[in-house]
């Protein structure tokens, strides 16, 4: 089994960019896709995340998520 690698490519102020490969489960075809994640920490403590998924350089998906601390 291969070791997973993640690389922090850029850090600009309160934002960070991550690049990594993601292997989908066998029931989803077992494909390996490239992921670029941008995570932004907002002033109120919320994290805004945008993930872009690519296969052979072609964009195959995008995920936008927001993480907030529950009080």
Description:
The protein has strands at residues 6-12, 15-23, 32-41, 47-55, 58-67. Helices cover 0% and strands 63% of the residues. It is globular. The chain has no helices and five strands. A five-stranded antiparallel β-sheet has the order 1-2-3-4-5, with no helix packed on it. With 71 residues, it is mostly beta strands.
Number of distinct beta strands? 5
Strand content: over 45%
Portion of residues in helices? Answer: under 10%
Element-by-element helix/strand order:
EEEEE
Strand order of the largest sheet: 1-2-3-4-5
Mean of all residue-level pLDDT scores? 86
Count the DSSP helices: 0
Structural class: mainly beta
C-alpha Rg (nearest Å):
14 Å
Shape: globular
Distance between the termini: 40 Å
| Main β sheet profile | 5 strands, antiparallel
Which ranges are low-confidence, i.e. pLDDT below 50, for 5 or more consecutive residues?
A: none
């Amino acid at each position: 089994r291969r070791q997973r690698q993640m690389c922090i490519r850029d850090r600009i102020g309160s934002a960070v960019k991550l690049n990594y490969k993601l292997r989908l489960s066998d029931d989803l075809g077992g494909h390996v896709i490239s992921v670029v994640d941008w995570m932004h920490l907002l002033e109120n403590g919320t994290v805004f995340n945008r993930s872009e998924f690519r296969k052979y350089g072609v964009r195959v998906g995008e995920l936008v998520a927001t993480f907030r601390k529950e009080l």
